[in-house]
Amino acid sequence: MADDSPAPVQDAVGSRVERWQDVRMGMIGSGREAVQYVRFQSPHRNSRGHFTGVFGLVNNLAREGRLSDEQETFRRRSNSWYNAAYADPSTVDPRVYDDEVNPGAAAWFKPSATHLLSRVSGYLEILSAHGVDCQALRSADPGRVVYEDDVQIVVVPHA
Prior knowledge:
Elements: E1 9-10, E2 16-19, H1 20-24, E3 37-45, E4 51-53, H2 54-63, H3 69-85, H4 89-92, E5 106-109, H5 114-117, H6 120-129, E6 135-139, E7 143-148, E8 152-157
Antiparallel strand pairs: 1-2, 2-6, 3-4, 3-6, 5-8, 7-8
C-alpha cells in the first residue's frame, strides 16, 4: 500500500516542514517522528527578513480590511481567547523579540499545548480562504531558547 502523505522537506534551519493539513489531521506526535515543538508561519520572508507567524498573517489581513465579518469576529474572539490563555513573551521580557538582542526570534508551541494547537485551525482556514500560504514546522531543536513557559518557547533560529 502506497503512502500518499505529502513528502516533508527540510527548511533552511533543518526543521521539518509539512503542509498545515497534516497537523490538523492529528499527525503531530502520531509516531511518524519524535516531535517536540510546532510553529505555523509563512514560507516567505517579510520585509524585515523574518517568517511571519500564523497570528500575524491573519492580523495583517484584518489590518488590510480583507476579512469577512464572520472572519473578523472569529479573529477578535480567538485573539482574546489566546491572550487570556497564555503569556505574551514580550510582556514578560520586552527584549525577547528585539532584533539586535535576539535576531529572528520566533515562538513555537510545545506539543503539550494541545488546547492552544487545537484552535489554530480556524486561523489556517482564514489564510487558506485568502490564498495566503502557511506551513507547519516541527523541530526537536528549532534554535537557541531565549524564553520558555508552560506552553511555548521563543528561539533564535540556528544560523
